[in-house]
Amino acid sequence: MKSKRGKKLIFFSLGPVVGAAVSFITIPITTFFISPAEYGKASMFLLVQTIITTFLYFGLDQAYTREYYEQKDRKNLIQNAMVLPFLSATIASLVLLTEAHQISKWLLHDENEILPVMLLCINTYSLIFERFFLLSIRMEEKALCYSIYTIFIRLAVLIVILVIMLAGVRNYLVIVNGTLIGQILADLFIIIACRQLLSIKNFRLDINLIRKLCAFGLPIFIAFFIETIFNITDRFMLNVFSNYKEIGLYTTALKIASLLKIVQTSFTSFWIPTAYRWHNENRSISQFQLVSDSITFLFCFLFIILLLMKNIFRVFFYKRLSRNNLYFSISLFSTHALYNQ
């Protein structure tokens, strides 16, 4: 049994680790060909994507995992859980399309560049499918399948970015369009692979179930909203008091610091379905506490290692990052604090 759990943990970790490696390759490639100012402009647009994503789910994605072992009809469960996110995506898309020129002017300083806004609208829908379908795979504890899809998403983004750069583009559109198109294409693949979950045969809108999901998800949504505010305030303040160049340098440092998230993602991918299964099996609270203490110790250890290695990372990224080691240190402290709450 321990060998089986260890194997699942390794397979669940494979996706985040390889995905992070792909991202680690993507960062120096983009920072080599794109100026810090253009990188900063792209990061501000993708920050809006993060904000929209926070509001899409209303915590129903987490509520879905909570109810997974409680509901017999799991296809009906996931379809009911996706109803409100799709409604919120529709509202967000209508707002984005109505104010497309103003949003482009505000974020990109070019009111005629509305293609990224249109792609963002499509992306809001594809992200919902991606989130819930990957959660379904994760709850089924199909570790290898989950990791393959996770890696595929990262590879799709990298490939599209490279194609756009080979076409001669050397500005923020490389990152913005590359990220959005890559995610959409990868999500289409996941949707096709999980198309059985889209069958509306025997579907019934269960208002009581949706209310139950909302009751569980609302506190989580509030927590995620507060965490998102912490995560985005820094770049918005830089946008107000500084310039896109500084935002680009800071975002690069932040992405490097986010390597700490590999462990968090790897662990939670394995732990969430396991924790709910343990809950149903009435496992002792001491077992949960042991896991919590162990992962906290591991995060502290990795935090110290990454902090000591900050001077090594600047070799692979902007040379100007050498005078911005403070960015990396601050990013690392914030990342460590948020993931140990």
TrEMBL record:
Main location: membrane
A Pfam family: Polysacc_synt
TM ranges: 9-34, 40-60, 81-102, 114-134, 146-166, 172-192, 213-232, 295-313
InterPro entries documented for this protein: Poly_Biosynth_Transport, Polysacc_synth
Keywords per UniProt: Cell membrane, Membrane, Transmembrane, Transmembrane helix
Record bears the keyword DNA-binding: no
GO cellular component: plasma membrane
Topological relation to the membrane, as annotated: Multi-pass membrane protein
Subcellular location, record wording: Cell membrane
Signal peptide, first to last residue: none
Presence of the UniProt keyword Coiled coil in the record: no
Recorded superkingdom: Bacteria
PANTHER family: O-ANTIGEN TRANSPORTER-RELATED, PST FAMILY PREDICTED COLANIC ACID TRANSPORTER
Protein name: Polysaccharide biosynthesis protein
Source organism per UniProt: Listeria grayi FSL F6-1183
